[in-house]
Amino acid sequence: PRLANQIAAGEVVERPSSVVKELLENCLDAGARRIDIDVEQGGVKLIRIRDDGWGIPEDQLPLALSRHATSKISELEDLEAVGSLGFRGEALASISSVSKLSLTSSAEGQEQGWRVQTEGRDMEAQLFPAAHPRGTTVEVRDLFFNTPARRKFLRTEKTEFGHLEEVIKRLALSRFDVGFHLRHNQRTVHQLKPAESQLERERRIAMLCGPAFIDNAVCVDVEASGLRLWGWVGLPTFSRSQADMQYFYVNGRVIRDKLVAHAVRQAYRDVLYNGRHPTFVLFLELDPTGVDVNVHPTKHEVRFRDGRNVHSFLFSTLHRVLAEVRP
Ligand code: ADP
Ligand code: MG
């Protein structure tokens, strides 16, 4: 089974940022309100993520590291309406097969915490008592220590950290209600408190995307025929273009989608901003049955049941909003 895990690990664990993505999704799935992320050497030496979610009960702790162990799908129909971010039950197994991993958790109503740890191939996942407040800490050390070929594909510390920070940014933009604290090599990079009010949200966006974006953005919040679009659209400034400042969420998940990109670009282009890259942080909300988010295993793609309706809603909404502020 370890060999299978290592092969599977290639699909999920490409680099430190993919580890962080999987671990953070687990924290959010567990209802965390505050997440601390500690990283050393771009995540290659250490990724430690602590949350205050509902934790993992003692008897389920060793299980959490085994392949296809997921607590998130109880029946097949659940697949249709998967609300949680992870549901394949292979992230922890894959990560543990290519790193030195420890999982410490204290579940609701439990007297104390427990820890399991593994070292790559070493299958023993022994259970130790451990002090831990309610919630979970996953510590991933020496990523790819036992798969030198994969290790060779890692880039510089700076590049790996950049990828990792981007993953955190994406999630932090989608969950204003959760606090994130990111430290790299013992230094705080982002300290984001839960943001409730519009002002606090915009402050978080300013911290993550730079004040230039939010200072030149218009707010959107439009609802029609079961669709809601809210967020911020950046107006072009004469500062450097930010081609990568494009965040689009469907029901809370970040996606990249041709239909969406086309509708946004079209509206942008129509209302004068010819040749400029649209910049935006936008959230589309619709009935979960109107969208299939499991088209692709990395879950960045979606398929809308009524794509034409979504396209025209996005286009007309953004067109109107941009036209209103046209100088
Ligand atoms: P999946 O998320 O697809 O279920 P994972 O391998 O990511 O699979 O996690 C396996 C299981 O471990 C989860 O289903 C969950 O029960 C448990 N788990 C992992 N991380 C956490 C966490 N931070 N808090 C609570 N439970 C967790
Ligand atoms: Mg998961």
TrEMBL record:
The protein, known as: DNA mismatch repair protein MutL
Highest taxon of the lineage: Bacteria
DNA mismatch repair protein S5 domain segment(s): 205-323
Provenance organism: Aestuariirhabdus litorea
Keywords, ordered alphabetically: DNA damage, DNA repair, Endonuclease, Hydrolase, Nuclease
Tagged with keyword Cell cycle: no
Function statement: This protein is involved in the repair of mismatches in DNA. It is required for dam-dependent methyl-directed DNA mismatch repair. May act as a 'molecular matchmaker', a protein that promotes the formation of a stable complex between two or more DNA-binding proteins in an ATP-dependent manner without itself being part of a final effector complex.
Similarity comment: Belongs to the DNA mismatch repair MutL/HexB family.
GO MF, any single term: mismatched DNA binding
Any GO BP: mismatch repair
A single GO cellular-component term on record: mismatch repair complex
